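Hey Z.,

So I finally got round to the nickel (II) ion thing we talked about over coffee. Here's the setup:
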Amino acid sequence: MTSGLHDGPDAPGTPYPLDPLSAGEIRVVAGALRRDRGVEPPGWRFAAIDLVEPAKAAAGPPGREAAAVCWNRADGQAYRGHVSLPGGAVTGWEHLPGVQPNMTVDEWHECDAMLRAHPLLTGALARRGITDMSLVLTDVWAYGAALVPERYRGLRIGWADVWHRGSEDGNPYAHSVSGLHPIVDLNRMQLLELEDVLPDGAAEPPGVMGEYLPKLTGMPLREVKPLQLSQPDGVSFTLEGRVLRWQNWELRVGFNHREGLVLHQVGFRDGGRLRPVAHRLSFAEMVVPYRDPAPDHYRRTAFDIGEWGLGFMTTSLELGCDCLGEITYLDAVVHDSRGEPVTIPNAICIHEEDNGIGWKHVDDRAGSESRRARRLVISFHVTVANYEYLVYWRFYQDGSIECEVRATGIMVTSYFPDGRKPPYGTLVDQRTYAPFHQHFIVARLDLDVDGPANTVYASQSEPAAAGRDDPYGLGLTIRDTPLRTETAGRQDYDWAVQRFWKVVNHGVRNGLGTPVAYKLVPGAAFPPMIDRTSPAFRRAEVIGHTLWVTPHRDDERWPCGEFPNLSEQDPGLPRWTAQDRPIEDTDVVLWYVFGIHHITRPEDWPVMPVDTVSFWLKPFGFFDRNPALDVPPAH
Ligand code: NI
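And the result:
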């Protein structure tokens, strides 16, 4: 990053090279491919239309370009087209043999409409006493190739759950139609077969209370007095174009259909100098294996980023409800499968929060001195069918960055017989259990600590052996081990030695004479605890380690491969890192795997209180002393 990139406002009408595609640009891309390559909906679909971000090493602003992944429904063949902007010339056209592009929102809706009108499904539901199809919801999932029946190999295939609302506004996920699973050819949009087994305990659906709307729970609501925030003098941040400046922090706010929010060129202004911290921060994959081999759940391994896209799933935020205080919103623009732009109003929220005490000391003579901690929060929310993920990137006055995810929404459930204990889940309602599952999130952290040449160290604490120098057996030492190649860069969390990772720039020293660094503070790391031969693990070997470190490559973006839909083996991080490339004193990318090991609770039903996980990036000798010393006292 050069500091010049942030200087001055962008010229009106001229997008900055990292600005997301506009609605007009999406139209140009789709129109060009329609005109030159016959990508004509509905026979063809667009899976992804995205900005080609300029190469990191590029000297100057390149020509603006977009890439689109599309496929022909007639033969299932996928292609990638490149289109230059603003002119709309098709500059590339590449066949992508043997891959299935990501799922699209249009397919989800069209599949639901097709299934709910299908006589096979209406018949099966009628036999179970369900005749009002307006109360039925089907929910198509993608799955792994190894689980697809041989006769359907090579098709663009999905499997679906069937759900039943108790009333017009009732929660569909309250009532599982257990054992009923349509298998669908998504290209022909046809039902291939209907799996119809009646699992034990499902013949007579239990009396589940799965509602959360007050009008449906009928519960009297408790009393809570209003709590309001006011910032009478306005906010302490500025947003110029997509450049955000706050309390020495500067960054660019990006967005795309797959990762959702992306933070570019994150730097900290220090003594008149903009010091780079990160080139790019985002979530690159999310893997959610359900750990229940029952017929309702064995296929349920979601790749919410690679299969569905956090950007596509982003929902609008509402003032006073989702965020509190003086809020600045940014809209996001994605697209549908016909290549038409879709605007998500208020997709990204930017606001400041008070976070209690930042630092404090009470001295006998000087009295009490304390500072409140203020943080800048950049957030977005996604709804992936039954589940919500709320993502918060928080910047602090002391140079720290916190990344928090809150999971909420409705758990998937199944029925089981009276008097038994569900082996792979928790009882959450009458004869109803929620299967155990895991949410692995892979954060792609392209850090540039005072520049791109960085070395990652595994740092662990070790008690010194008692001896002549330490007769009291008190000494605690730190062992810093440089990770020299990608094999060493595969790291696991280790509580016993309090392992963390330090990203060091040996070329820059602080005022104390030591090299500057940022520390990755591992939070919410957990082991996969899964058989290495399981089809779910083979598609997502990334979950086998807490941290992976690679040398930066512009084209290494997706840890489980670009096309995890119907994948069989993880062609991403395991394959790249098998080269064992050097990562010392290099432009490194850290892939941090964290999330929620979800042992379901009765209290998670019928709607989950947020499950909150986070990790931190903290300066470690990046500054000479507490960088929040100059924060003024609150009046
Ligand atoms: Ni969960």
